[in-house]
């Protein structure tokens, strides 16, 4: 049994918040255990809760289109969410739910060791960098503790506001260059001026 499979089994029986009583299925994440890029969304929705897979609804289809636009396939990247169970009626995840799930995402990052993490949307960005608004830092790569971070708007935003689609597409086009930079290996971390620091 791989470490990720064991992790998924543990997530499947997690009782650590009230979502464990309302979920149909847990949605731990999916992708290769050596993925260079890790996308982190907010929470499972209706279809994800039914199938136990992340990003399988309309937002997932858009994400796959975005991946295709830069020459990648879904099975080449790792996709997860900040929380692993669907909040009722797709409401925003509560702080206590995010905290209860924190250990699972931390473990996934430790096991996969991605070169790039792409926080998708404000809840995911807040998990990694609580003081940065998504509207200010989306599409701007930063580097911390051996990992590049490239925050983007959640693909679902384009489904609700058509003017967001172009911003998401433009941000996605920055991924190949960021990956090329990340493949060069660790770089020296130079503190940025306070007003410029993203992470």
Give a description of the structure.
It is globular, with a radius of gyration of 16 Å. The longest helix is centred in the middle third of the chain and has 18 residues, at about 95-110. Helix 1 (about 5-10) packs antiparallel against helix 5 (about 95-110). A hairpin with a 2-residue loop joins strand 4 and strand 5 (about 145-150). The N and C termini lie far apart (about 35 Å). It has ten helices and five strands. Strands 2-1-3-5-4 form a five-stranded mixed sheet. The protein is an alpha/beta fold and about 200 residues long. It has a single domain (about 15-180), classed as Uracil-DNA glycosylase-like domain (Uracil-DNA Glycosylase, subunit E).
Summarize it.
By secondary structure, this protein is α/β, with parallel strands linked by helices. The protein contains 10 helices and 5 strands. The protein has a single domain (14-182), classed as Uracil-DNA glycosylase-like domain (Uracil-DNA Glycosylase, subunit E).
Structural key phrases:
alpha/beta, single chain, disordered C terminus, 199 residues, five-stranded mixed sheet, Uracil-DNA Glycosylase, subunit E
Outline the fold blueprint.
Layout: H1 3-12, H2 19-22, E1 37-41, H3 46-51, H4 58-69, E2 78-81, H5 95-112, E3 116-119, H6 122-128, H7 134-137, E4 142-144, E5 147-149, H8 155-160, H9 164-172, H10 175-182
Helix pairs in contact: 1-5
